[in-house]
Amino acid sequence: MKFIDPHIHVTSRTTDDYEAMAAAGVAAIIEPAFWLGQPRTNVGSFQDYFSSLVGFEKFRAAQFGIRHYCTIGLNSKEANNEALAEQVMEIMPLFLAKENVVAVGEIGFDDMTALEEKYLRLQLEMAKEVNLPVLIHTPHRNKKQGTYRSMDIIEEHEIPPHLVVIDHNNEETCEEVLRRGYWAAFTIYPKTKMGNERMVEVVKKYGPERIIVDSSADWGVSDPLAVPKTGNLMLERGVPQEHVELTCYKNALAAYSQSGQFEESDWLDPEPIDQRTLFEGNSVLRGGQAPRVDDKQEDDRIIQ
Ligand SMILES: [Zn+2]
Question: N or C, where is the chain less crowded by C-beta within 10 Å?
Answer without folding.
Answer: C
